[in-house]
Amino acid sequence: MPISRKKAAKPAPAPAPAKKAVAPKSKKRTVQEAQRDESDDEFGQVAIDMNSDDEEDMDGDDESDDAEADEFPEDDAEEGQDMSAADIEEDEDEEDEDSEGSYMDGDSLVDSQEENDDDEELEEDDEEGSDFDDLINGGDIDPNFGHNLNEPLAPESDYNPIKREYPEIDPIYDSDSSTEENENTVGNIPMHWYDDYPHIGYDVDGKKIMRPATGDELDKFLSTMDDPDSWLSAHNYKEGQDIKLTSEELEIIRRLEGNRIPDADYNPYEDQVEFFTSKTEIMPLSAAPEPKRRFIPSKHEAKRIMKIVRAIRDGRIVPRKSGYVPPKPKYYNLWNDAEDKPREEHVMHITAPKMKLPTHDESYNPPAEYLPTEQEIQEWNELDKEDRPKNYLPQKYNALRNVPGYGQFIQERFERCLDLYLAPRVRKNRLNIDPESLIPKLPSPRDLQPFPTRMAIEYLGHEGRVRSISVDPSGLWLASGSEDKTVRVWEVATGRCMATYVVDELVTSVSWGPNKEVAVLAVACGYKVGLILPEKLFSPELTLHSEEYLKAGFANVSSTEANAKAQWKQPTPAEFDQGVRVWVHLQKPVKQVTWHRKGDYFATVAPDANNSAVLIHQLTKHQTQQPFKKTKGAVQRVMFHPSKPMFFVATQRYVRQYNLQRQELVKTMMTGVQWISSLDVHPAGDNLIIGSYDKRLCWFDLDLSSKPYKTLRYHAQAIRSVAYHKRYPLFASCADDGNVQIFHGMVYNDLLQNPLIVPVKILKNVHQRVQALGALCVEWHPTQPWLISSGADHTIKLFS
What we know:
alpha+beta; Methylamine Dehydrogenase, Chain H; flat; disordered N terminus
């Protein structure tokens, strides 16, 4: 029965997709700050940025419209056509390609005319018909024979094999919108690293991708109620936006929740295909090696061998001797024009030593006798790095895979390279030098007197550790703060307690005001700083003047405004009768109080307050300023310069010098210690000393370098306090070993002459150790060469 052929409907062309619209980014906003020049006496509002980095706020809203492209209709691909039909189809395609000739460069017009005539004859033959059409009309051949796989089958045909359908690929490049988006290129990193920044990453051009605006929880709830498809979205932390999931992604999630394979078309139970079978196949070729019985020696090679043998017998070829050594290859320097002559090793040269082989204690499973005890581990940890016999402790592991990486590997290899590169390995003749001649000639301690040598007075009365002591500018009175929540004022010459003030918290610091015309004592206890006026110790005129000086700040209008950093408050009537005149309440516990040289400003240190750890307070106006927007590290100590508008800030490892007038960083001193404990500035202002918890005292020459001029290590335990004398060339340090070291430190006016530092006296066992704490604070008398120290044994001692 004849079957008529029908042409397959061609798919309609798809419209070109719309391009994405990218919103222009907002320009950066710049802020100009006016510079203010302030005098030496009046600081004003001081603000210094320790980071010295300008933060830029950028607000950008990226709006994009998703362009939807119409999909092409899917074509049903066919497989399994007959090979003969495919051959016929290829022949027809080749004929069509031959018929569609185009004029190319180099072809003649005559040849093109002949080709056009041939084309006309072929068209006439097609109009007359062919035997192939008769076969189709007669019903002997299936109409789908040689069918193009890219076109659908005729609807009347029953030949429609099952084929897996794939989504259509749009070849137009403009439809790909992935290159138009600001793709975040930060990689696979934790996105919480960008929590403190206004941007969330960078695009391919290196520009910042700003964080999209996010509302609060109420905005999220309202957007969820308004959008019925909000449950279909997921938050992309890398882009900072909510992305709506497609139906394919939702189907994958459902399958994963049901413990099923994400791909619905995957069949895990397909029949096994035996690529390598155990059945021996009978093949015409074999890869088995040829047997030796088939080997036929070459007659040509036999003739060549016999020729060599005859030459050896005649002596024309001499074989190599048994001790023959082949010559070494010569290497030439490509970058040297001169002739390379081999240089012999120097007679005094010594080869580099080899590293020692590992011993039993370096094994990952050493014998039990090599493993250290807990006491040996504690002793090893207490030793310094350079004093340890070995830089490791033997450890035992059950298996080699449990052994972690060696943390000092890179450092040891680096030190080894330095040893090979820098260490001189030349034999040197030993010189007979007297060791005593190498010791620097220092003056005798007798020539450096006066300095304190013996204990003169002991002040008893405290029941807790005496953390801080201070001598007033006149040198008559001594104030001490203890952990028994009391502040005592002593008479320096007699050791008699003249006044006792009880506070609510532990006293961490006391400091007399440097102005002799105002009698004021600053006390730091807990979260507040108190200003005390000892009425019984001074004259009525000085007491009245100090009373008016302290109360003048409450009349200032600006002082009544609320300050988030510090609040100035008046004391209660009971505290007023006791002697307290002003309370300054802070946010964190105060560790130190220090005064400016003129007595109007004082600074406080609260290490736990982060950026507001350092605050400067003005006594006459009752104002508080925060000089640093952001601090680098935990602040330990601060101090004003004795004559210039400079401010020193000591963190754990560095000491920074700031100019308060210009509001800029002047210098950063690199101490080289692990943790700074104390700080003091020379009365001339050109030198300073620091003490550290790793037993080191460092002297800095500010005009010389940012590194220590001298590093002294005379204490066996952590240094707690250091102090300069204001008149004599003396400085002292105290530590937890209970000893006090006294040094002679002469600073010369000649800049070409270095300071002279001589240890003159060691006051041993000044304070007994209580719970691993010894001497806690030292202070010099302002006019006499007397040294006062306090310790954890509840005592205060004066040495003269």
